[in-house]
Structures are given as structure tokens and as C-alpha cells.
Amino acid sequence: MRPATAARLVLGGLCLAAPGRxxxxxxAPDRGxxxxxxxxxVLGGRLLAQGVADLALGARTRVPDIVxxxxxxxxxxxxxxxxxxxxxxxxxxxxxxxxxxxxxxxxQPAP
Length: 111
Fold this sequence. Notes:
The protein is mainly alpha-helical.
């Protein structure tokens, strides 16, 4: 299992199981907004789906995973600029997406 896959599975599980605790942990000012919890859970579902696809399809998902995570990071930076009330949540999400994309970038392709 690639480290990025493990990260996606763990992060996805946390997002789905405990969105409030996750938002509290990062000190998100929007943590009391029920819409934010829904967004975090949707993100968790996407991360879990990506992780399961990684497990099922192997290294073939590496490039699409990088593209998906880089796109997510870019949209979160844009969201942070546009919505100051969600800035912290968006920037943490962007940083995590950049991190998982980076893990895939440095991973050695399977022979």
C-alpha cells in the first residue's frame, strides 16, 4: 500500500466518523456550521473512495490521484480567498491534499 493511500484512508475515515472533532482539532471557526460538517463528510467519502480505488487498482491510480488532490488543493486556496469565514478549514484541507499528492509524487512506481 502506498503511503498516500494509507493517508487517504485514515483522513477519509476521520472526516466521516468525527467531523466535529476534526474541525475542533484545527480550531476552525466554522466548526459549528452544520454545512461545514456535511462538506467534511463529503470530502471524507471522496478520500475513502480514492483509497479503495487505490487498493483495488494499484499504481494505475497514482497519476489520477495526484491530479485530483492538486485540483482539490487549488480549489481550497480559492475558497479560502473568497470565504474568510472558512479560511482555516480550507487551508488545512489544501495542505492535506498537497501532502497526499506529494506522497504520491515521491513514491517509487511499482516495477
